[in-house]
Amino acid sequence: MLFLLLLVPVLSDATDGKEIIESLRWVENADPIKNANHAIETKDYRFLGIAGRGVAVPGLPDGLYWEYTKKYGINVIKGTSDNVWGEEHLRLIRLATKYAETYNKKMLEHLAKLPKSSNTSLNLTRGACAPLAG
């Protein structure tokens, strides 16, 4: 009887892993430049983050991390984690990391062109650190 009680959480965790993997599939066909340009048009200057023990922002130099993420926010890509659900999940996390790096570099290019006073028109309607789903 004890064996069955211990087995149930393992099975439910396996189901969650499949859902997490599926939540990242969008990144396989996503265009980071196109999506960054769309975000720029709507003045959503948040950077994309990858969840792990903390939140990494690929493409954002370490010296700018705190200043820029405080000023513009982070949109964490849903399904990324340091809890990896197998090779497919790892592949998708790596793909999401490359996507985020390209997106964030495009965002940095745009932000470098903005006048310093433009921060007041930011669109942060979904919060400073919201998950990004495909």
Could you list some keywords that capture this structure?
alpha/beta
Rg, please? 17 Å
How does the helix and strand content classify structurally?
A: alpha/beta
Q: Regions with pLDDT < 50 over 5+ consecutive residues?
A: 1-14, 120-131
In whole angstroms, the N-to-C terminal distance is 41 Å
Q: What is the succession of H and E elements?
A: HHEEHEHE
Strand ordering within the main sheet = 2-1-3-4
Q: How many domains comprise the coordinates?
A: 1
Percent helix among the residues?
40-55%
Please explain how this structure is put together.
- By secondary structure, the protein is α/β, with parallel strands linked by helices.
- The protein is about 50% helix and about 10% strand.
- A hairpin with a 3-residue loop joins strand 1 and strand 2.
- Helix 2 packs across helix 4.
- The termini are far apart.
Task: Provide the fold topology.
Elements: H1 2-23, H2 32-41, E1 47-51, E2 55-56, H3 65-72, E3 74-77, H4 87-113, E4 129-132
Parallel strand pairs: 1-3, 3-4
Antiparallel strand pairs: 1-2
Helix pairs in contact: 2-4
Brief summary of the model shown:
By secondary structure, this protein is α/β, with parallel strands linked by helices. The protein has one domain. The protein has 4 helices and 4 strands.
